[in-house]
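Q: Here's a chain of 310 amino acids. Please give me its 3D structure as C-alpha cells.
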Amino acid sequence: MNVLITGGTGFIGGKLTETLMEEHDHVYILSRGKHTSEHPYLHYIKYDPENPDDDTWMEGMPKKIDIIYNFAGASLQHRWTDAHKQEIFDSRISVTRMLERWIKKAEITPDALVNASAIGYYPVSKSVRFDEEDAFAPHDFLSSVVTAWEKEAQKCSEHGVRVVLARFGLILDSEQGALPKMAMPYKFGAGGTLGSGDQWYSWIHIDDLMNALLFAGVNKDIEGPVNMTAPMPHRQKHFSVYLSSALGRPNFVKIPGFLIEKVLGEQSMLILKGQYVMPEVLMEHDFKFIFPTLEIALEDLFEEEKAAKS
C-alpha cells in the first residue's frame, strides 16, 4: 500500500510508520520540516506551515494513496497558554483542510482517512459509561477542538473517502507519551492518588493502538467515531495500584487536586478528570486486544525495568 501520514515524525505517527515499513508499505510523511530518507519505503513531502493555503506540496504526492492517517497537531503536553491553545486548534484544522483540498483534486481517491481525535469529546463523568453512539455538543476547550477537527475531517467523505474518527484514550508506552511522566514519581517513592482518585482513565497499550489503527484503515465496514481504548477502564486510584505493582515501587502519596490545578492550570483536566469509554465499534467488528487488562499491559511495558531491579 501507499500510505500518507501527517504528524509522521511524532509519537503515534512515528510508531505507525515503523509498523507499516515492516510490512513493506510505502509511507509518505507530510512534514512541516525538511527531512530526507534513503530508505526505499520512506518518503517525505514538505509543506509550508506558515502558508497552509500553498498547495505546491501536492506536486510531490504519488498518483495513488490508499490510506491517509492524519495525526498532525501541536502537542497537548505543553502548558495551555492562550497562544498554545490557539496553536492546538489551528494546527489541526489547517492540515486537515489541506488534505481535503488534495483529495478533491486527486486523480485517484484514497480509500480511507483515519483522523486522530480524542475521548475528550465525551463529557467528564464519574458514573456514566460512553460509547460511539453518544453525541454531545462541545463543553470545554478540548471537546471544542475535537468537535471542530472531526467536523473538518468528515468533509472528506463528500469526495467518496471513508472517514474514521479515531478517538484516542490514554496511550500507554514505556518510552513516549504520558506514561513515562506518570511513572516518574513512583521511581522516587512518591507515587499515589492524584486528586480524588475517582476519575476514570480509559487507556490503551501502544501495540493495541497500532493494530487498531491498521484494522480501522483497511476494514471497509468501519467508519465514523471509533473509540481506541481498551475494554477495561480504571479509576485513577486503581490505575495507581497497578502502576506501582508493575514498577515494584510504593504507592502511598496523595496529591490534592488543587495543587495540580495550581501548577498546570486548565491542562490539569487531563489528569484530574476523565471518562469511562468503551470501544464498542472495535469489539463489534471482532478486533482482538493483545492487552485487554491494565495489569498485563503495564507488566509488559515495564517487564525489563522491573526485572533489572530484582
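Q: Can you summarize the key feature?
A: The chain has eleven helices and 15 strands.
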